[in-house]
Amino acid sequence: MTKRTVLTAIAAVFSSLFVAAVLVAGTTVPDTFEMKTEAYTEHTYHPATLSHKKHIDEYKAACGDCHHDDKGKPLTNLKEGDNVHKCIECHKIPGRKPAAKKGEPKLTDAQARQYHAEAMHDNCKGCHSDHNKQVKKDTGKNGNAPTSCNDCHPGGKIK
Question: Is the pTM above the cut of 0.85?
Answer without folding.
Answer: no
